[in-house]
Amino acid sequence: MKICVYGAGGIGCYVGGRLAASGSDVTFVGRPRLAAEVASNGLRLTDFRGAELRVNAVRFEVVPEAAAEADLVLVTVKSAGTATAGAELAKVLKPDAVVVSFQNGLRNASVLRAALPGHRVVTGMVPFNVLNRGDGVFHQGTEGFLDVEPGLSSYAPAFEAAGLPLTEHADMAPVQWAKLLLNLNNPINALSDLPLRDELSQRGYRLCLAAAQSEALVVLKAAGIEPAQLTAVPARLMPRILRLPDWLFRRLAGRMLAIDPLARSSMWEDLQAGRPTEIDYLNGEITTLGASLGIPTPINTRITTLIHQSEQTPTPYPAATLLHHLTAPS
Ligand SMILES: NC(=O)C1=CN([C@@H]2O[C@H](COP(=O)(O)OP(=O)(O)OC[C@H]3O[C@@H](n4cnc5c(N)ncnc54)[C@H](OP(=O)(O)O)[C@@H]3O)[C@@H](O)[C@H]2O)C=CC1
Ligand SMILES: CC(C)(CO)C(=O)C(=O)O
To answer: What is the DSSP letter of 261?
Structure first.
């Protein structure tokens, strides 16, 4: 069984690296800069529990043709790159290759299905954080396992052996919406320019997130969407918990702060690298759904605008300033 990671960056190198470390035959397809880094250093995979794995002989390629032999393709490009990745894969994949989208956002699997008619495309979700620390080091900063649609049972033992068991969901939409609600913190974390733990320790940033989530929950309710429960606190109660004063938040929701001190959102990494972010695929979904229902979404719209500004000129926002930007009357 041959596995290809298509779009090998943070998630791809970590998930694919763990599969390779446990004996799976993995080919990585990514960019030349990372290919050179991995050629010099191999992959070193660390996690918040202190575990460390090394993969020395890494097959890291930079052309789509390297996916031609794959039985299973894990797509881990950012959302803006999905259509291109799908078009590239369409030219090279074996007819029976199965494709999994391990991406945030709601529409990536559909984009891949449109590009790859005839292939089984499975929606997946990665709940944990991975930080690219440079020199081939990828660090898992938070806990969680992989969620997928049914259809990968023949590959389940490989993921199990890698310590990344697959949890199946007949309907991934509630899981994806719940993840999107959590991802509303990505831009707030990116704008704070702080590690997740430091950001979420400050009530001012939590108030920003609570405002974005409350607005999103109104839209979801009007649309009849019930998000899955991915955390100890159900999604609908999260804004109330986030608004607690710091001392009470630490006491009642200390588990939310059990985050590796290094962990940051993938959107922070994009801003740092000068790449376009996934903001339109995260907060933008709330704005689009709200507009379709006639529900205004000023908080998520303002966050989207601030991130687009930061894509041009990265600007860190102290908590009080960010809260003011989001909630001041227009
Ligand atoms: N990082 C995290 O902690 C988490 C991320 N996610 C989600 O997982 C997905 C992947 O995120 P992440 O791993 O952080 O992203 P990265 O940007 O780290 O990795 C994606 C890599 O794929 C490369 N790439 C893009 N298009 C192609 C292509 N056509 N061929 C080859 N390589 C390509 C990118 O290069 P280039 O930049 O040049 O385009 C980049 O190096 C996103 O949807 C993200 O939201 C989910 C959970 C946690
Ligand atoms: C894991 C989480 C929620 C936060 O890091 C994420 O999905 C991301 O960074 O994109």
So the answer is: T
Of the candidates 114, 274, 263, the one whose C-alpha atom is nearest the C-alpha of residue 186 is 263
Q: Are residues 82 and 18 in the same domain?
A: yes
Considering every ligand atom shown, identify the ligand nearest to the alpha carbon of residue 268 and give its number.
Answer: 2
Specify whether 131 is located in the same domain as 212.
no
Ligand 1 centroid to 103 CA: how many Å? Answer: 8
Ligand 1, residue 266: give the atom nearest the CA. Answer: 1
Q: Are 113 and 179 in the same domain?
A: no
Q: How many Å lie between the centroid of ligand 2 and the Cα of residue 128? A: 6
pLDDT digits (tens, 9 = 90+) for 63-96: 999 999 999 999 999 999 999 999 999 999 999 9
pLDDT digits (tens, 9 = 90+) for 102-154: 999 999 999 999 999 999 999 999 999 999 999 999 999 999 999 999 989 99
288 lines ligand 1 (CB under 6 A): no
Nearest residue by C-alpha to atom 29 in ligand 1: 85
Element (H, E) at 59: strand 59-61
Q: Which of 183, 184, 238, 268 to mutate to test the pocket of ligand 2 (most atoms within 8 A of CB)?
A: 183
In the reported structure, the alpha carbon of residue 191 is separated from the centroid of ligand 1 by a whole-number distance in angstroms of 20
86 lines ligand 1 (CB under 6 A): no
SS3 (DSSP) at 294 = coil
What is the residue range of 248's domain? Answer: 174-327
Q: How far is the CA of 147 from the centre of ligand 1 (A)?
A: 18
- Report the separation in Å between the CA atom of 267 and the middle of ligand 1, taken as the mean of its atom positions: 11
Same domain membership, residue 207 and residue 114: no
| CA-closest candidate to residue 131, choices 275, 263, 276 | 263
Can you tell me whether residue 178 is helix, strand or coil? helix
What is the ipTM metric for this complex? Answer: 0.99
Q: Given the DSSP bridges, would you call strands 25-29 and 59-61 parallel, antiparallel or unpaired?
A: parallel
